[in-house]
Amino acid sequence: MITEDLLRISSNQGVSSGDSSHFSRLINDSTDHCSSNVSDDAISKCTVTPGGRRYYVPIAIDETFIPFVNKLFDSMEKGMNFYQEYGMLSGFNTRRSTEKTDDDDNIVSKYVVCSRAGFNEKKSIVPSKNSSQVRRRRTVSNRCGCHAKIILRIVSGKTYRISTFIEEHNHELIAKDGRQFMRVNRQMSTISRKFVFDAANVNIGVSKSHSFMKEQVGGYANVGATVRDFRNFSRDLKAYVGERDAQMIINKFKAKHDSCESFYYAYDVDSEDHLTKLFCADTVARRNYELYGDVVSFDATFNTNMYNMVFCPFTGVDKHDKCVTFGFALLSKEDIPHFQWAFDHFRKAMGRNPVVIVTDQCPAMKQAIPISFAATDDFPATRHRLCMWHIMEKFPMKLGNYLCKETDFMEKMKKYIWSSTLEPAEFEKGWNSVVKEFKLEGNRWLWEMFAIRTSWIPTFFRDKPMFGLMRTTSRSESENSFFSQFHRQSDSLCEFYLRFGSAMDKQRYEYGRLNQEDLSAIPSTVSKLFIEADAAQLYTRAIFYKIQQEILASCYDMRIQDIGPLVDGVKCYIMKDVLIKDKLFEVKVSRNYAQCSCKKFVLCGILCRHAFCALNHFEVVKIPRLLVLNR
């Protein structure tokens, strides 16, 4: 009857009725599973008791790995490891069980059992009114009361012997293709743990690191652990750090300072001893500040950790026109005391004020910067420059989309806002004319932006050295994008610093690579001017390409209007730039110097097209070395 029912069901599921032998084989297999005939690839021999119980005994194992009664071991640990290895070869896991001790707490006997020995206790669940709505974790149990085991008893000293060995299991053993998932084969090695740890430093999660390791070792079976094992290791690592997170990073900084006094760090805690402020600058960062610390961008909009402390990097521009990090602060609040604390320690670590610092329109920063970077006997006060991009982004919101996008208002306004060749009086006249043309004299926000024009309009920075290197906080935005590749908001402080170190390694590696490329190759020139060939030898590649544009523009876009007489080796040129209407530029040149009224060299540290035109006419074939900055 049962066979007929199975055939009828199978025919409804797409199996032809003519395949009845398939089900006959299934039934025969179920009854003959424990036959006495054992195939060559079998892993165990099954026997059935008169009561119908089945027992499985491992076969095809080298005799040297099979336990036997009275086998001796030099220590109890060796005996347990021996049985574990036997289980690994046979297809079952082991676990340590009962032990007995004497009056001196010496272990006299130890039970090592099959992992499926015993039974799990069933926890009774008291029903409640909302019991149907409560989500309970689904669990499974592999315990089936298996009696396979060995008992180790002490002989003398540290010597133990096997006093009992039960070989039979009441469950099937694990096949060879499933043994990679046995617990004994899923022990994470030191290499695996180091790999997970290193992968986390560059923001690679455990799932991807497991897949990547599989590719390295040639298959999942060779990894030696599952994805869950990788996750558990990462979880245990975080649990180990736990509440000691802040103290561990402070201890790390202290150890770095003890080994290298030029490593600078500072921290502060609140009344409850919670970390609220942290600043750090290592040796390389402080050396970079000596070279490139004239202009600094500071931004406090990036969260990188589980405590919502704001990551505030101090960013500059290096000789390859790339971002360089001078240090960082982690702050729990964005207020005046926190920013002032960070600026104070930045100045203390670097030994001097930056020439200019670029920030957004944060009012707390606006008040903290003059206090922290005030003038001293040795250094002038730092000039605070507001980010132009943040201000320009507010125009549509403050003045309306129609005015800014459907008219030529923004085009006319940008002509005066972004220009660095205008004099202050020319800017003010142009601004007022545009405001009057579009009848915006009563707009309060425009009036406020005009009142603080000396803090963000390039015209008012023309006389300040290197103020043209950064006009916006785009460098900080670029740094935030760079750091986002390494950090996550769920990071602990220890994870944050490890990943910050990886980010710095990459940044400094790129710096070294660009240095080597500049030393090993010379960029091609596009003109036959000797001064361009000299620039190719003199500047880094990124800066040379900017210089090259100025040299080419000096050949095609300049028109000399007047040449003055030679006085004390200095000649004055009046020239017109065809790209800038209604503007004449005055250039004074000699054999070893050039000075232009556009003041590009003061702003950015490189010569302008007007100066190159005058130098070329004056038959100067090499760039005056006084006009090449150390940076």
From TrEMBL:
InterPro entries: FAR1_DNA_bnd_dom (IPR004330), MULE_transposase_dom (IPR018289), Znf_PMZ (IPR006564), Znf_SWIM (IPR007527). It comes from the Eukaryota. PROSITE patterns: ZF_SWIM (PS50966). GO terms for molecular function: zinc ion binding. Residues 585-619 form the SWIM-type domain. Pfam families: FAR1, MULE. The keyword Metal-binding applies. Keywords: Metal-binding, Zinc, Zinc-finger. This is SWIM-type domain-containing protein. The lineage of its organism: Eukaryota, Viridiplantae, Streptophyta, Embryophyta, Tracheophyta.
